[in-house]
């Protein structure tokens, strides 16, 4: 696979990370995360492996968020054989009951591993820079 193809595949798995997280799609965890993945986010303690990600999704699903929307931009990806690192800015929006929104912005520091099924997230740390709650009244 060429360097450009690897970088595109890594971007696609990171986009899948956003969709799988927003949808809390436990069935697709193995499609995105390596079996020994490490995930560390501002909303929950660090988790390890597919079971840890499932627990995080369960916790996330119990929160008051009606909608979750993760977005990633400005990828910087370095590929070294069957491993890679990536940095991304993220913006996440959570819709809360009553119409309020919670906005978050930060940076992901990731590591990826090539498996027989393709690239997977092996390490992800989300570093929050900005969090702001906006009331429904402010948006009118």
Describe this structure in words.
The protein is α+β, with helices and mostly antiparallel strands and 140 residues long. It has a single domain, classed as Roll (Nuclear Transport Factor 2, Chain: A), CATH 3.10.450.50. Helices cover 27% and strands 52% of the residues. It contains three helices and six strands. The protein has helices spanning 3-23, 29-32, 49-61; strands at 33-41, 44-48, 67-80, 83-95, 101-115, 118-134. Strands 2-1-6-5-4-3 form a six-stranded mixed β-sheet. Strand 5 (101-115) and strand 6 form a beta hairpin. The mean pLDDT is 94.
In brief:
This protein has 140 residues and is α+β, with helices and mostly antiparallel strands.
When the domains are counted, the total is: 1
In whole angstroms, how far apart are the ends? 50 Å
| Beta-strand segment tally | 6
Count of helical segments? 3
List keywords for this structure.
Nuclear Transport Factor 2, Chain: A, alpha+beta, 6-stranded mixed sheet, about 140 residues
Secondary structure layout plus pairing:
Blueprint: H1 3-23, H2 29-32, E1 33-41, E2 44-48, H3 49-61, E3 67-80, E4 83-95, E5 101-115, E6 118-134
Parallel strand pairs: 1-6
Antiparallel strand pairs: 1-2, 3-4, 4-5, 5-6
